[in-house]
Amino acid sequence: MENKEYSYPLDLDWSTEEILHVMSFYQAIEIGYTEGILAGKLSEAYKDFKDIVPSKAEEKTIFKDFEKVSGMAPFKLIKQLKDSEVDQIIKP
Hints:
Shape: globular
CATH superfamily: BH2638-like
Number of helices: 4
Largest sheet: 2 strands, antiparallel
Strand content: under 5%
Helix content: 55-70%
């Protein structure tokens, strides 16, 4: 993966395990944008993310923060995910 020039938006109150799950979700978004990602893989990463960030309002804030630093909008991929089959490739 390319060397990125930004930091992931993270909550310092999250445990190390939670941070790793959220980082895996961010990486899944990056893969979706750069190569495309199987809906099943993105779904799994998103489920783990939602276990940590169940609030829709907090999710929107985190998505906006991530888009600000990376230029990638998680919402676009998650919107596609909701109508996808597990083996479909998702890419904006």
